[in-house]
Amino acid sequence: MTDSRIQTRSGQRRSGEREEASESTDEREQCPECGGRLRSDSEHAETVCQDCGLVVEEGEIDRGPEWRAFDAAEKDEKSRVGAPTTNMMHDQGLSTNIGWQDKDAYGRSLSSRQRQKMQRLRTWNERFRTRDSKERNLKQALGEIDRMASALGLPENVRETASVIYRRALEEDLLPGRSIEGVATSALYAAARQAGTPRSLDEISAVSRVGKDEIARTYRYVIRELGLEVQPADPESYVPRFASELELSDETERRARSLLQTAKEEGVHSGKSPVGLAAAAVYAAALLTNEKVTQNDVSEVASISEVTIRNRYHELLEAEGSPVI
Question: Residues forming the annotated binding site?
Answer without folding.
Answer: 31, 34, 49, 52
